[in-house]
Amino acid sequence: MSRLTATAPCTVHAAMVEATGEVVAQALLARRVAWLAALARGLSAYLIAARWNAADLDALGSGVGLDGRVLPSKGWMALRRLGWGVSSPSGVRVCDRVVRCAQEQAARLLRLALHRRRLVAAIVATWPQERSARTGAEWEALRKVLPDGVSAADIRNRTRQIRAYRDQHEVFPADLTDLEEPPNVAAQVVLAAADRQLLTLERTGSRSARLRVRLPLVEFPACGRDWAWHVLPVALPPTVPLEAALCAPTVRVAKGRVRVDLPFKIPVGFAPATGHRVGCGFDWGLNGLLVGVVGELTDGRVISDGRPFAYDASGVSAKLHRLRAEREHLSAKHRHLEKLLAGITVADPRFAALSAACQVLGVEHERLCARIRNLNKALTWSAARWAVDQAAASGATVIYLEDLATLEARGRRGRANSRLSGQVRGRIIEAIRHLAAKHAIAVVTVPARGTSRYCPRCGDGTSVLKHCPAPDRLGELGWRWACCPACGLSCDRDWAAAERIVSRGLLGQKATRTHRSTGARTIATIVEGNVARARRTRKPTRAARRARRTRTDLHPRPAARDRAKNRPTPKRPTRTSANPRNNSMTSSRVPDRRTVPAPSPASGGQRPAGHAPKPGRHQPYRTGHVRNSHHRTGFHHAKATPVLTFTEHGSSPGKATPVRVT
């Protein structure tokens, strides 16, 4: 049994001074928390600026202190063992626990800089010969020297940063300190480094907690009387279970309100890396954000139930594209105004109007960026929750996803991937890992090469699919539909890719490797095999179901037929001209409409139920269930895919092709 750590954002609306019982309103509480955050931020920024050089980063990266002992995991203790202290400004009294919080935040930022430093050094050491792209050998050499867990997006962004520096200075950067300025420090207080002399935290109910923290009463406290204990009631969100263990939070001020980022730990079961029988495979689709299938491993073969489920985020994606276009438009106008301001002086009468317009555009640009970030975050957790719910409802014990490090696309799909990159695929994978751990479901990534190109039915990895716009337009070039010339498979392109993903995962699960530091699981070996579909049991017809309900079945069940063998079977009435009484056959179904006009109310008596057919009026009709009849503009229009288990399917026909390791 392990523990999973999560963070719940909470808002504090008021507080109380413990010594006097004074109620502190939200505005005053936010001001006092901002004073404490400013003190910690100033100490952290001073410490980072003083140690932003190659020698100090080498000392921190060595992992050994001045006394020869290994540096501890806690950041503030590591900095103190290196002798990197910091003192409060003159005339300001700050307790040692606030200095600890500042050192902890500085240590976290410096350790993140060490990761970027190793990444920059690896890219500079394996710089490609051609400016356009790296060759296969250059990519292999770069992967060998890169730190673990580096994505293709990180490599691309750092390469562009280094190229811009070389174009400007005509030399490569010698270190990260030449390439970047000291990182900015957020205005927050990391209370994880404090003890009971600065804060206490206890749970008071199922949805409430009590946080005691010492806050300054003035902006620049000069003595101990300028500090006081404040009691902050924290309302816990429903995501924090009763068995969760609360940890020291991080306090900050956002939009005039006090925010408490409260981490908590919950016990979760262990998800094994191998030994899975039922798994879900998800593809980053072109027709939808996520498309998945369920596969079952039986006697060395993979069987799918033949029912895909897709997460349709077209409404949210359309809104994101609109917001991004608006953001680019505002950014272009803002840059244009900045160029105009650079060309005139302050004494120019146009400077004031242009400066005000430029400031308004900057605020609006920041507001749009915040909306895009919030919408991306909502889309991330919504898609992750949907994927985990589908896997849990299907009885799957593992989820297989495409490895983003091996996902390289070109052409039309490359443009689609660039659009989907704003939907933070990496964040979706992290969210799926986090939510799947609560259900003891393993998350494994498989190689993405060839999942949409080859046929999942043939299974040999050589039958290339033909992509077309639709199943009735096989002669045209497209990308939505896939058909196999060898076996005749015709299905959605993303569906076929999801089947190959779950097949690679279940057949190659013995090659699963777990990263030592991050815990991420991946399969690097491609094991090919076909995916067979299970036949569903045929459901009884509508007439048979109605006859069973009404007990008017002319062909009774076998047990009833055995008991009634001595009775003659009644003959079905037929329509003959000699027997006109049998010409009008009755039906147990009530007609949907009246077949004759209803009598008028003036003729006396009560009018029967139903409407009389009116001549000249078009009769309504429906050809089936109408889906997506309204415009989808958000998450509230999302529809869940019904889940069928493998017990509702019969045995699958045919034989599996031999498994081949490539």
UniProtKB/TrEMBL annotation:
<keyword id="KW-0238">DNA-binding</keyword>
<feature type="compositionally biased region" description="Basic residues">
    <location>
        <begin position="614"/>
        <end position="636"/>
    </location>
</feature>
<feature type="domain" description="Cas12f1-like TNB">
    <location>
        <begin position="426"/>
        <end position="500"/>
    </location>
</feature>
<dbReference type="Pfam" id="PF07282">
    <property type="entry name" value="Cas12f1-like_TNB"/>
</dbReference>
<feature type="compositionally biased region" description="Polar residues">
    <location>
        <begin position="575"/>
        <end position="589"/>
    </location>
</feature>
<protein>
    <submittedName>
        <fullName>Zinc ribbon domain-containing protein</fullName>
    </submittedName>
</protein>
<feature type="compositionally biased region" description="Basic residues">
    <location>
        <begin position="533"/>
        <end position="549"/>
    </location>
</feature>
<feature type="compositionally biased region" description="Basic and acidic residues">
    <location>
        <begin position="550"/>
        <end position="565"/>
    </location>
</feature>
<feature type="region of interest" description="Disordered">
    <location>
        <begin position="528"/>
        <end position="636"/>
    </location>
</feature>
<dbReference type="InterPro" id="IPR010095">
    <property type="entry name" value="Cas12f1-like_TNB"/>
</dbReference>
